[in-house]
Design brief:
The complex is a heterodimer of chains A (415) and B (248). Chain A has two domains: 6-51 and 262-412, no CATH class; 58-255, no CATH class. Chain A is elongated. In chain A, strand 6 and strand 7 form a beta hairpin. Chain A is α+β, with helices and mostly antiparallel strands and 415 residues long. In chain A, 52% of the residues lie in helices and 20% in strands. Chain B is of the alpha/beta class. Chain B has helices spanning 5-9, 69-76, 99-109, 125-136, 140-153, 169-181, 199-216, 227-232; strands at residues 25-38, 41-54, 58-62, 84-89, 92-93, 110-113, 187-191, 220-223, 235-240, 243-247. In chain B, the strands form two sheets. A six-stranded mixed beta sheet of chain B has the order 6-7-8-3-9-10. Chain B has a four-stranded antiparallel beta sheet with strand order 2-1-4-5, with helices on one face. In chain B, helix 4 (125-136) packs across helix 5 (140-153), helix 5 crosses helix 6 and helix 6 (169-181) runs parallel beside helix 7. Classes of the chains: A alpha+beta (415), B alpha/beta (248).
Chain lengths: 415, 248
């Protein structure tokens, strides 16, 4: 079968200088590999942080009183949460929906008093999918009922109060009417997350006991936390469910309820994207150089081709096809060189516990994981591949244009 | 070799049925001047050159180096444009044509044979010869028939799958000749086609080109210093300092 067609000729042409082509292909492959690993690192780690934050607070999407965001008091509550949860669970993206009460609490023992935050929940409704703290209980156990006198404390908070398991703790709250109420609980579990803010400032109480003490109705809470299959759907889910809500309620995606975390992640993502742009520009510059030199070396050949009947457009297309082949083969090379490191970093990860130290590091109350793994979203991998291919093609435009503009009479005279 | 063979070829019946005996011009140059501007200096490569090439001719442009032979060939081949004057190919003025139309003219009506063969190194002899037919959109079977016949005519049967690197200089030039006439062009322009080959090979090449001129009615115009080419030409146009010094 004849190879005198443009795609075959382009393919054969790129292998005329095997070394140069292999160098160009390796720059594409390694450039794409770096972009995939950087992006995968970000995708996985931000996903984990967002999920962790969601499981610590108001979910990926939070249904709450319209006033609650600006004035997070117990007065701004949500009633009839059972019906709202049912409504939310009808959305295909919503996996779980739980009602919680959260606020500020004063905890006291004989010798100590400390302020903290509290989450009131029904342990029957919660599991590791909705509450990350369950995995972090390293002494005692999770609450066993939505009623009773159990309390779970953060490790540092327990130390500050000088309490152990089964110790008695008195808690003081302000109810929705502004009255101060008291309760007594026994420490049933101690949790260590690694996030200093959480470990020194969190307590968990049974929700029905709290409702009784606070004079709240059955089903009343400060938010309904919705957990999604994919946190990236938060805005769309919130928009879909908003239409069915009463006017005194608001439905907020996680980045509205956790603006600090959202800001941190946005900044990191922007930084990573800038880094990837720089990588791709450097790769594109290398490809441009390769193609430009290759065109300049072949000016006489292009002059001859014009003489025997190739049109300028055909020569342009030939060089663009050479670039396309480089891009496609480069991407195949990228898959090959990326596979092993990607597998390693997605399973074993990078252990940065030395950098984090014993006290841990947190952002907006969310502990940074000590082992960073890669886990790229497929669509981001596709975007990187398309960006690499597009960059390759764009790099070729000027050299291809030069090939088509060759003056045949002058170029044929070149030696 | 009988010099008159070339003259006989110009009156033979060509592959498309036309004869050269009626004097129809394939190429007409009228008062063509070509000036190259090199900084402050103007170099006159051609000065008011007028010339007519008829169908079936086996002609040669001769003259010392720098006389304007290659320039004349480039202008006739639509590779360049004159500074003054007009050039007509088969009655059509080249000046009125845009880049795309000129490409088409070069593809369909003009064949080139260069001094340095200039085959595409990544394509086989067959693929090089069929390139123009592909560009013309000729269907694969017809391409195959024409190219195989041409390669046989130039004595390269059995070598169609060889790359240029595996062919001798003379063999490569034969492929170039096959490529040049594959599209049944109005004229084949050959710029020093025997310059890079030995004497025996040069004679063989000339035999082939003369035979093609005779059997297929191909019009050849050479630019040459080679006395062997001039011996075979039916007409020698001598150019000196950009002007025709002699035409016989």
């Amino acid at each position: 079968m004849s190879r005198a067609n443009l795609p075959s000729m382009a393919w054969l042409n790129i292998w005329r200088n095997r070394r140069r082509t292999l160098l160009t292909l390796s720059s594409i492959a390694f450039g794409v590999m770096l972009a995939i690993l950087f992006t995968g690192l970000g995708d996985q780690n931000w996903r984990e942080m967002i999920d962790l934050a969601a499981r610590l607070g108001g979910g990926h999407v939070s249904i709450q009183n319209a006033e609650y965001l600006d004035s997070p008091t117990l007065r701004n509550s949500v009633r009839g949460s059972a019906k709202l949860r049912e409504q939310a669970l009808r959305d295909a993206e919503v996996l779980r929906a739980v009602t919680r009460i959260s606020g500020q609490i004063m905890l006291s023992t004989a010798g100590q008093s400390y302020g903290a935050g509290f989450i009131g929940l029904n342990p029957g409704d919660e599991d590791v999918q909705t509450l990350s703290l369950i995995d972090a209980i390293d002494e005692g156990e999770m609450l066993t009922s939505s009623r009773g006198n159990q309390i779970i404390l953060g490790r540092q908070l327990a130390q500050n109060l000088n309490v152990r398991l089964k110790s008695k703790v008195v808690y003081t709250l302000t109810d929705p009417k502004g009255e101060i109420i008291y309760g007594v609980a026994r420490v049933s579990g101690i949790v260590t997350t690694g996030a200093p803010t959480v470990d020194s400032g969190l307590s968990i109480l049974p929700i029905d006991t709290l409702r009784e003490n606070l004079g709240m109705a059955e089903g009343e809470g400060t938010q309904i936390a919705l957990f999604l299959k994919d946190h990236r759907e938060a805005d769309r889910v919130a928009a879909r469910l908003a239409g069915g809500l009463a006017k005194d309620l608001a439905i907020l995606p996680w980045h509205r309820t956790q603006p600090e975390l959202a800001g941190f992640i946005a900044m990191k993502v922007a930084g990573a994207q800038l880094m990837e742009m720089i990588i791709l520009v450097l790769v594109a510059a290398g490809i441009f150089n390769t193609l430009f030199v290759s065109v300049m070396e072949r000016l006489r050949e292009f002059g001859i081709m014009l003489a025997i009947g190739f049109s300028p457009v055909t020569l342009f297309a030939l060089v663009m096809l050479e670039s396309l082949w480089l891009g496609l083969v480069g991407l195949v090379g990228a898959v090959i060189v990326t596979a092993a490191p990607y597998y390693y970093f997605s399973t074993k990860g990078i252990d940065i516990s030395d950098q984090l130290g014993l006290t841990g590091t947190e952002v907006a109350g969310v502990a940074l994981t000590s082992v960073m793994r890669v886990g790229i979203y497929p669509e981001n991998a596709l975007i990187i591949a398309l960006a690499a291919l597009t960059g390759t093609l764009l790099s070729a435009v000027y050299p291809a244009w030069q090939a088509g503009r060759v003056a045949p009479a002058e170029s044929i005279r070149l030696v | 070799m009988d010099v008159k063979e070339g003259a006989t070829a110009s009156t033979s019946v060509s592959a498309d049925g036309q004869t050269g005996a009626d004097g129809n011009a394939i190429v007409e140059l009228e008062s063509v001047t070509k000036v190259y501007h090199q900084g402050a200096v103007d170099v006159f490569a051609l000065r008011g050159l007028s010339l007519s090439i008829k169908k079936g001719e086996f002609s040669a442009l001769s003259g010392p180096s720098g006389s304007g032979k290659t320039t004349a060939l480039n202008l006739i081949g639509a590779l360049d444009s004159p500074s003054e004057g007009s050039i007509r190919l088969e009655g059509k003025s080249l000046a009125s044509l845009g880049r795309r139309e000129l490409s088409r003219i070069r593809r369909d009506r003009i064949g080139f044979v260069f001094q340095a063969y200039n085959l595409m190194p990544v394509l086989t002899a067959y693929e090089n010869a069929e390139t123009v037919l592909r560009l013309q959109g000729i269907d694969p079977q017809e391409r195959r028939d024409r190219v195989m016949a041409l390669l046989a005519d130039v004595g390269l049967e059995g070598m169609e799958d060889r790359l240029p690197g595996a062919l001798s200089g003379g063999q490569q030039q034969r492929v170039a000749i096959a490529r040049a006439i594959a599209s049944n062009p109005a004229i084949v322009l050959a710029d020093e086609p025997t310059a890079n080959v030995d004497s025996e090979t040069a004679e063989h090449l000339l035999d082939i080109m003369q035979k093609l001129s005779r059997t297929r009615g191909v019009t050849f115009l050479f630019s040459t210093h080679d006395p062997r080419v001039m011996d075979r030409a039916s007409r020698i146009i001598r150019i000196v300092d950009g002007r025709i010094a002699d035409d016989s």
